[in-house]
Amino acid sequence: MPTHDFERAGTPGRTPASQAAAAAGRLAGVSFDVSADAYGRFMGQYSEPLAVQFADLAGVRSGQRVLDVGCGPGALTAELVRRTGAGAVSAVDPSASFAAAVRERLPGVDVRRSSVEQLPFPEGVFSAALAQLVVHFMADPVLGLREMGRVTRPGGVVSACVWDHAGGRGPLTAFWRAVQDLDAAADDESDLAGVREGHLAQLFAQAGLGEPEVATLTARVRYASFEHWWEPFTLGVGPAGSYVASLTADRRAALRERCWQLLGAGPIDISAIAWAATIRA
């Protein structure tokens, strides 16, 4: 079973935004037009326990009106509903399949298919706007965060979290290591927006939100066997799934073999750490 915890991080450093901008040109816009089940099998076992501590970090509680920005198939949305009730929760996602899945899963939630850089809500209507594992795939992270601030009422909370891909502590670290062992020119996810220490806080500042409090969140998952770990990568989800789908059969087999060499037959324990930033609007 997944376990989780969170701890406060120190004052974030500052790094140039040029790598994130370059990554946006290559990886932002990677298709998430997959089924909710496929995404759940790939990332759900991490995003569901992560949602509990992320909502804790943002202080989400009964009586608030809250927004899930880039809701995917609804891991965080479900946690927000548990805390506030469906009628107090809104969610947006650009993927039609994900928006439909959340409507079916969580009746009563106001679910809209929308770009996260142009939120379909007036100013200052939410007590909290949260983006879980989304900022690094926004076409314009600064604009997306600025929009989150716009729709949050004064004194409300804006919060976002992304995996620490650049620090080699995300859930896909072993996969991308194997990829680059075989293909050094392959793009991984280490230069996406917010995935290195200090960069998520820098994006908040660039969006005009001020200097956020930074924390780390940790989700731990155990896979019973190597096959349980490998199979989700074959479902075409996100940059990793797209990379696997692009390979010939021989190259896919070589990648699978290299992953097995790194991880073994199992059980496999993965500890995935995310950067989180939170501020009062």
What does this structure look like?
An 8-stranded mixed beta sheet has the order 1-7-8-6-5-2-3-4, with helices on both faces. The longest helix is centred in the N-terminal third of the chain and has 23 residues, at 36-58. The chain is an alpha/beta fold. It has a single domain, classed as Rossmann fold (3-Layer(aba) Sandwich). It is built from 10 helices and 8 strands. It has helices at 18-26, 36-58, 75-84, 96-105, 141-150, 173-182, 199-206, 226-230, 238-246, 249-263; strands spanning 3-8, 66-69, 89-93, 110-113, 126-132, 152-163, 213-223, 268-280. α3 (75-84) links the parallel β2 (66-69) and β3 (89-93). α2 packs across α3 and α6 crosses α10. Helix content is 39%, strand content 22%.
* Average pLDDT number: 89
Q: How would you classify the helix and strand content by structural class?
A: alpha/beta
What name is given to the CATH topology?
Answer: Rossmann fold
CATH first level: which class? Alpha Beta
Overall domain count: 1
Question: How many helical elements?
Answer: 10
Oligomer: single chain
Largest sheet entry: 8 strands, mixed
The geometry reads as: globular
Considering the protein shown, what is the CATH homologous superfamily?
A: Vaccinia Virus protein VP39
Q: Which runs of at least 5 residues are low in confidence (pLDDT < 50)?
A: 1-29
Q: How much helicity do the residues have? A: 25-40%
Task: Note the beta-strand portion.
Answer: 15-25%
State the separation between the terminal residues, measured CA to CA. 36 Å
Strand arrangement across the biggest beta sheet: 1-7-8-6-5-2-3-4
Computed over alpha carbons, the radius of gyration is 18 Å
| Overall CATH architecture | 3-Layer(aba) Sandwich
What are the secondary-structure elements, in order, as H or E? EHHEHEHEEHEHHEHHHE
DSSP E strands, number:
8
